[in-house]
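Ticket #4471: structure export looks truncated?
Reporter: QA, pipeline team
Priority: medium

Steps to reproduce: submit the single chain below to the structure queue and open the exported record.
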Amino acid sequence: MARILIVDDAKFMRITLSTILKKANHEIVGEGENGKEAVQLYEDLLPDLVTMDITMPEMSGLDAVKEIKKQYPSAKVIMCSAMGQQKMVVEAIELGAKDFIVKPFDEGRVLEAVSRVLS
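Actual output as written to the record:
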């Protein structure tokens, strides 16, 4: 199964995703609260996959994806967005994100996105 890094400024969102992913036997190798941490943790952990919130303090998920993809072109990132952020989701995909999931998380959709991005 995959080694996954979860990045979201809301702790309960990280817990929710972590629970869904662990149930599917994935390993959560790290958690971050903002884009800056995401970039640093990616370099330290080199996970198989990152789930990344779009709107975060210090550095947005979009900027973090840009940074990570610049250094690691094969990085696999799934963006997490709230409803109504379609424009940002499109931008994230253009920057190299592989998929997106919408909050509140639907377990089936999360696992479907993860398996599609990892295959």
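Status: closed, not a bug. The export was complete when the record was re-opened. Leaving a note from the reviewer for reference: The chain is about 50% helix and 20% strand.
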